[in-house]
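Work Package 4 report. The design task specified in the project plan requires that, given a folded chain encoded as structure tokens, an amino acid be chosen for each position. We show below one input record used in the internal validation round.
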């Protein structure tokens, strides 16, 4: 009985050792895979339609948007340059005509503006809308690139700290970026890390070439300096962990200075908000209300009632939106 029990225990032990050996071999040979989770843009369907309609015709307008190609790459939008220009041109023409018609009808039938001014403001509104739409499409990649840059700069101390821990533990650069790209709570640099891993595993580049390509595409100068420093450290065979630890300390100091600077600028923005969006509109509303009660004349062909309506429903909301955009562009994420 004891012999049978001992044999069963030995067989179980051999089976367990075999399973553990297979698992350890499989884990050690496992290569980082390219993360399959890709961000999709909401512009895919409109881009396809615009490219089918305007693809060949937009070629003559490409030199006018020559600076936009690099901004599209830095913004992280997975968008073809020619397709984006086609969407810009098509959307601007589709918006211009309805705005001209609606503006003309509103001014003539609701606000009782003379016909000459109606036609003038109709054409002006159409041209203004066309220019604003072109300008908006041109600035959108710039805004996305700047937003991505601020997110990278805000999280760079935490990113370099995370990489410093892995590098100090002897993890290879390729696995450092793979780990960075597969975080459960991804950082802004996770998208850059996914591009590095994709270039290594999918396109067959070595780690240094993939890092050089990522350095040329990133909108953050601080991240670019860090990546180029990593390339130099790998080239010279230096201590990558020590380099990243020093970068972590440097970025933490810069982070403290940036927060102090933001606190000072926030007080200035609050004063601007009070002056332009509280006191200024209040004075204008009082002045226009008094003019309306006294039966005063018009300003630039517009009655005081019309000016009061434009200020209340268009002027103040537009200024508030612009102020919110400025506040969002200057506020740090962390």
């Amino acid at each position: 009985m004891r012999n049978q029990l001992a044999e069963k225990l030995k067989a179980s032990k051999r089976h367990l050792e075999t399973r553990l050996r297979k698992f350890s071999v499989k884990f050690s040979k496992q290569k980082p895979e390219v993360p399959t989770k890709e961000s999709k843009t909401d512009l895919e369907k409109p881009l396809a339609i615009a490219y089918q309609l305007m693809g060949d015709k937009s070629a003559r307008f490409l030199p006018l948007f020559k600076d936009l190609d690099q901004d599209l790459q830095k913004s992280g939008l997975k968008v073809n340059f020619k397709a984006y220009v086609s969407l810009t041109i098509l959307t601007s023409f589709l918006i211009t005509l309805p705005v001209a018609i609606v503006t003309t009808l509103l001014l003539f039938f609701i606000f009782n503006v003379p016909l000459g001014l109606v036609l003038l403001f109709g054409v002006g509104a159409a041209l203004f809308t066309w220019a604003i739409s072109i300008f908006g499409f041109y600035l959108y990649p710039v805004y996305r690139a700047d937003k991505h840059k601020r997110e990278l700069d805000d999280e760079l101390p935490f990113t370099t700290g995370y990489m410093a821990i892995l590098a100090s533990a002897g993890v290879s650069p390729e696995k450092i970026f793979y780990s960075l790209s597969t975080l459960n709570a991804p950082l802004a640099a996770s998208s850059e890390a996914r591009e590095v891993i994709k270039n290594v595993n999918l396109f067959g580049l070595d780690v240094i070439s993939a890092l050089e390509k990522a350095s040329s595409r990133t909108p953050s100068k601080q991240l670019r300096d860090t990546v180029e420093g990593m390339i130099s450290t790998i080239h010279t065979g230096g201590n990558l962990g020590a380099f990243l630890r020093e970068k972590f300390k440097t970025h933490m100091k810069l982070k403290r200075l940036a927060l102090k600077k933001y606190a000072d600028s926030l007080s200035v923005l609050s004063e601007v908000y009070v002056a332009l969006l509280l006191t200024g509109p209040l004075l204008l509303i009082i002045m226009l209300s008094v003019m309306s009660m006294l039966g005063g004349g018009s300003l630039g062909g517009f009655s005081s009632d019309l000016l009061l309506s434009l200020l209340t429903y268009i002027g103040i909301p537009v200024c508030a939106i612009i102020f919110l955009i400025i506040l969002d562009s200057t506020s740090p994420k962390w």
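The radius of gyration is 30 Å. Validation will be extended to a larger panel in the next phase.
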